[in-house]
Design a protein that fits this description.
This protein is mainly alpha-helical. The protein has a single domain, classed as Ankyrin repeat-containing domain (Serine Threonine Protein Phosphatase 5, Tetratricopeptide repeat), CATH 1.25.40. Helices cover 54% and strands 2% of the residues. It has a two-stranded antiparallel sheet. Strand 1 and strand 2 form a beta hairpin.
């Protein structure tokens, strides 16, 4: 199940920790962590480890296609989301310093759980997993999972601590888990217009990821300010259109209070200008060299 339905190939240490997770436990029991050989034997010869990368793969693509079928492992994402959330709520994980991302290998399953629990939860979420998700998201801005996910979204690490601005509502909106978004709005309410360190609101995150249901849910809130841009001037419409989410763009344009002529954000204009320069300067220099050679 883990090998066939994970969002990315798992390393063998990650797989061993995933298999060791116990539902309803408050912490990971080291005695449950299987050896690598035992974990592979439990796969009955259907999986192997790439020695160069330590990642686990199924022995053939056709097996991957078969196990990914809708009726073969129907509760796979339900189990995977619950396991990830159980892991993130373990005592040894939730008490880790939220601003320390230098030791991602310990515990091994931390990065995968932080990055991908919501992808599984969006597909299927058990009642117990909903409880675990709300527990995590209610204190998300002080959890290391917030830092790890924010680093993934932003694409780089910063020496300045910014995790406390990335809330549970940001996380649920990014993944598009509508049940969690609705529950957090009901519980927290006023955080709906808050931006993280880049000024990106939960609504902008949802639009940028193309989560149409979440965008509709957030737009229905009376105290929402949909026109609030991020710190660089990026608007809701710009994020949705730049990332190619046609359904969200259509929804926004149908509202009548969105200006399709809004200029792109400042950072995008600067980045695009640099791209043009990078393309044109070598070409112009080449022309100058050719003209100089003609004179000779």
């Amino acid at each position: 199940m883990w090998v066939s339905h994970a969002e990315r190939p798992l390393q063998i240490d990650e797989l061993c920790h995933a298999l060791a997770a116990e539902m309803w436990a408050t912490d990971l029991n080291p005695e449950n962590i299987r050896s690598q050989d035992t974990a592979l034997r439990s796969c009955l010869g259907l999986a192997m480890v790439d020695k160069a990368t330590s990642t686990v793969w199924l022995i053939h693509d056709t097996l991957q296609e078969y196990l990914s079928g809708p009726c073969i492992l129907p509760d796979a994402h339900r189990t995977l989301s619950q396991t990830c959330l159980t892991y993130l709520n373990y005592d040894r994980v939730k008490w880790l310093p939220a601003d320390n991302v230098s030791t991602l290998a310990d515990p091994p399953f931390l990065e995968y759980s932080s990055w991908h629990w919501g992808s599984h939860a969006r597909i299927e979420l058990s009642d117990h997993a909903k409880f675990l998700a709300l527990d995590l998201l209610s204190r998300y801005d002080n959890h290391i999972a917030a830092t790890l996910l924010f680093v993934k979204i932003r694409g780089y690490r910063s020496s300045q601590p910014t995790h406390h601005l990335f809330t549970g509502l940001h996380c649920a909106s990014y993944f598009g888990i509508d049940d969690m978004v609705a529950a957090l709005i009901e519980a927290q309410g006023s955080g709906i217009n808050e931006g993280e360190c880049r000024g990106v609101t939960p609504l902008i995150l949802a639009a940028g990821e193309g989560n149409l249901g979440t965008v509709s849910l957030l737009l229905a809130q009376d105290d929402l300010y949909p026109g609030k841009p991020d710190n660089a001037g990026g608007t809701l419409l710009w994020w949705a259109s730049f990332n190619g989410h046609e359904g969200v763009v259509r929804l926004l344009l149908a509202r009548g209070d969105v200006n399709p002529e809004e200029p792109p954000p400042k950072t995008f204009r600067i980045r695009r200008y640099k791209q043009i320069l990078a393309q044109d300067i070598p070409r112009l220099r080449g022309k100058k060299r050719n003209k100089a050679q003609e004179r000779l």
